[in-house]
Amino acid sequence: MKNNRFKLILIAVVALVSVWSIWPTYRDYALTQKLKSFHSAEDSLKFAIDNREAIEQAKDKSLKLGLDLKGGMHLVMEVDILDLVEQKAWNKDATFTRIMADVKKESAEQFNANVVDLVAAGFKKENIRLSRYFYDMRDSDQEIVNKLNGEAKDALTRAREIIRNRIDQYGVAEPVIQTQGSQRLVIELSGVTDEARVRRLLMGTAKLEFKLVKDSETLLRAVQRIGSTPLVAPAANAVATAPVDSSVTTAPVAAAPVPAAPAPQAAAAGVKKLSDVIGMMPNGQVFTPEYARDQVTAVLNRPDVQALLPQDTQLLLAAKPEMTANGEKYFPIYLVQKTPELTGGVITEAKATFSAQDNQPEVSMSMNDEGTSKWARITGANIGKQIAIVLDSAVYSAPVVQSRIPSGNSVINGIGDLNEAKDLEIILKAGALPAPVRILEERTVGPSLGADYIRAGMYSLIWGFTAVAIFMILYYNKAGIAADLALVLNILVVISVLAGFSAALTLPGIAGIVLTMGMAVDANVLIYERIREELGEGKSLRMAIDAGYSRAFSSILDSHVTTLAAAFLLYVYGVGPIQGFAVTLMIGTAASLFTAIVVTRSLFDLLVGSKFMNEKSFG
Asked: Gene3D superfamilies per the record (predicted)?
């Protein structure tokens, strides 16, 4: 009797905890429907303000829906390990650049190959030891390969965590971020609507650098040296932009005088060299028109062009265009010192805000003690000079140092809007990626398609439950009702565990719940058939129930344990939808073992001897 009382208390506790866990989901649904019921926007807004805390709490604790049900983005991203390897080299020369270019081509053809092994093979082919460029001269090639492989593995892990931090700060609920192979990340973001913004947030390397800007005379000489460089191809977006006003171009910046930047049509036909798409303002500022931005950037990144520049310098374009008096856009070009004075590693805090002077978006930054000390020294030694704030190889601003800055504060301006400023704040807080990443695959699921999936999933659950419940009642009479009550508790437990642990419900997860319903009644079928056999042998109802549960237990336990093991392996080795199926299957299998062995048995123990339960109750 005491044992049965304990079981009843346990069942009541499980049921109450399940209802408590699911309650926020119901509240979220009810409040959402209430908001939709208002006919005027004012009434809806008033209700949202009055019930703001309840709405936020319900949404935060409610059952999360996966990408396939709520809509969102699915991305496969690749970490550029080859770029990471190049960053680790310390003694680069023309031979190194040539070998790495060959490795890059080979890597593109063999996308599954280990990049570090390809690099090692490339240098071995030239009979050059890796220690000439990497780590210590005393290291063997194998030691260097091992170190680089370790760096590559660490880079993938760091990239995953940094991207996770960025997504968490952006506010995506329950993102799925998994590694695939040695270079790839699989990312699923449910509920995302601004795909372009998320794409920028994920791909930004966030490599922040503070670099000295060279004077205008040095810039002019550098541009003259590279002016005759041929252009590989015309700009892809040339047909969409108006010509730059000729009034802003005055002086030659190449071997021959530079005319006004050509109109797009002329660019498509007559642009032969770099000087054709570079001009100079009256104030000495060098620029390129908007239509030629990508083309000029590609040329400036070429090794042969960089070799013509003064030592330890590089040409960088501004991150944002400026406007001429006639409204045409152009990008300023800066000659900066290649070695940064300071990097973003010293940044401890970043905050998106508005500038006090012109009320434009900006990001203010604070530095740690080391950064504060260096920043004070750098600004003190370069009063009257420009320092470029470079983020991912684009100059956001190049202010003139007016005085020494002892506080360790700096500002990034030249930002388009507040959303972009907030995104910069996020990626600076999360830290820089160890290597660039690129999107290999992108799929978007719309919310309307997700709503259709939810509707179809609910129908499958309802029809599946109805069919099983009717069958059990028709075939097993009153005992079938006990099995149906246990099945209701089973589904309740599965959904409550998903909600309680903030696991996302996916379409394959719904399939797992439907499969769980079949497994739950399957255990009852084994027990009921055994009880029927015992009753057929003339045993009393209580003895038949005891024998039925006792003798069916081993078979039920074996089937559930093997199912749990299979589901666990699916979760460990599967990705995405397979894991969603495995999670619900594991929870449902454990719940069905509890409901079949404990719940129905307790109901029978409670009802045996009453008018409700007799030998005919099992069909």
From this structure: 3.30.1360.200, 3.30.70.3220, Multidrug efflux transporter AcrB transmembrane domain
Q: What is the chain's Cα-based Rg?
A: 34
Residue with tokens 């069919």: 467
Range 447-618 classified under CATH 1.20.1640.10: yes
Q: Are the C-beta atoms of residues 244 and 289 closer than 8 Å to each other?
A: yes
- Backbone φ and ψ for 406, nearest 5 degrees, come out as -85, -10
Three-class DSSP category at 504: strand
Chain-centre distance of CA 306, in angstroms? 34
Q: Rounded CA gap, 248 and 334, in Å?
A: 17
Fold assignment, 73-205+439-445: Alpha-Beta Plaits (3.30.70)
Whole-number Å distance between alpha carbons of 30 and 59: 11
Helix axis angle, 600-607 relative to 541-573, nearest 10°? 170
Query: What are the Cα distances from residue 279, in Å, to 172, 245, 274, 427?
Result: 44, 11, 10, 34
Output b/e per residue, 353-371; b: 16+ Cβ within 10 A: eeeeeeeebbbbbbbeeeb
Is residue 264 over pLDDT 60? Answer: no
Distance between CA 480 and CA 489 in Å, rounded?
14
Mean pLDDT within 333-346: 87
Greatest C-alpha distance within the chain? 112
Distance CA 259, CA 262 (A): 8
| Predicted model pTM | 0.56
In 162-280, the DSSP E strands lie at 176-180, 184-190, 208-212, 279-280
The residues facing 78 across adjacent strands are 184, 438
Return the C-alpha torsion angle 577, 580, 586, 587, nearest 10. Answer: -160
Instruction: Report how far apart, in Å, the C-alpha atoms of 543 and of each of 152, 312, 528, 616 are.
Output: 66, 91, 13, 15
Angle subtended by helix axes 41-50 and 2-37, to nearest 10: 140
User: 176 falls in which pLDDT band (50, 70, 90)?
Assistant: confident
- The whole-number pLDDT of residue 190 equals 77
Q: Among the listed ranges 85-94, 354-363, 479-488, 589-598, which one has the minimum average pLDDT value?
A: 354-363
Closest alpha carbon to 449 in 17, 68, 7: 68
Give dist(CA 240, CA 263) in Å, integer. Answer: 10
If DSSP states are collapsed to H, E and C, what string results for 321-384?
Answer: CEECCCCCEEEEEEEEECCCCEEHHHEEEEEEEECCCCCCEEEEEEECHHHHHHHHHHHHHCCC
The letter for the amino acid at 300 is L
Tokens 């020369």 belong to residue = 93
Please calculate the CA angle 65-67-71 and round it to the nearest 5 degrees: 95
Q: Where are the domains of the chain?
A: 2-62, 73-205+439-445, 209-413, 447-618
Residue 179 in contact with residue 156, Cβ under 8 Å? Answer: yes
Confidence of residue 67 (pLDDT cuts 50, 70, 90): confident
pLDDT at residue 1, as a whole number: 52
Q: How far apart are the C-alpha atoms of 378 and 389, rounded to whole Å? A: 13
CA distance 369 to 388: 21
Q: Residues 9, 14, 17, CA angle at the centre, nearest 5°?
A: 120
Select from 604, 616, 592 the least CA-distant residue to 545: 604
How does DSSP assign 8-35, residue by residue? HHHHHHHHHHHHHHHHHHHHHHHHHHHH
